[in-house]
Amino acid sequence: MNKLVEAMARAIRAQKDNARSVEDQAEAAINAVEGTGWKLVPVEPTEEMTEASRIQLILQNPDGGPIAIYGIAKWNAMLAASPNPLDE
Predict the structure, then answer these.
(1) If both were cysteines, with which of 3, 32, 40, 56 could 11 make a disulfide (CB 3.0 to 4.6 Å apart)?
(2) What separation, in Å, do the N-terminal and C-terminal C-alpha atoms of the chain show?
(3) What is the 3-state secondary structure (H, E, C) of 74-87?
(4) From CA 41, how far away is CA 17, in angstroms rounded?
(5) Are 50 and 17 in contact (CB under 8 A)?
(6) Whole-number pLDDT of residue 80
(7) Cβ atoms within 10 Å, residue 22
(8) How far is residue 65's CA from residue 13's CA, in Å, rounded to a whole number?
(9) What digits encode the pLDDT tens for the residues 51-84?
């Protein structure tokens, strides 16, 4: 079993042992995902994620010269701007 699945299973078991609701178990599993270095993000980027990516490109290329794609910096900006699935 991979680490992500193991973390989610532990979180669900811990909630289940405390007689928590299914919703509490699901929330614990989502939190466990982010604790393993993964992040749940929407399949399609949100407006905020797209804007963060655009801003990152401008920050990397402020003189307006030839555009270079800074994949990791843009990806990190989009992840930082992604919504928390628990806030939906």
Answers:
(1) 32
(2) 29
(3) HHHHHHHHCCCHHH
(4) 29
(5) no
(6) 87
(7) 10
(8) 54
(9) 887 777 666 666 655 555 566 777 788 888 888 7
**The pair of three-digit structure tokens given for residue 8, joined into one six-digit string:** 């989610």
Which residue reads 């466990």 in tokens?
32
Residue 53 identity (one-letter amino acid): S
Tokens for 13, please give them.
Answer: 């078991």
d(CA 35, CA 88): 19
User: Half-sphere exposure (CA, 13 Å, Cβ side) for 19?
Assistant: 0
- The span from the CA of 40 to the CA of 79, in Å, is 9
- CA dist., res. 63 & res. 36, Å (int): 38
The pair of structure tokens assigned to 59 is 């920050």
Determine if the pTM surpasses 0.70.
Answer: no
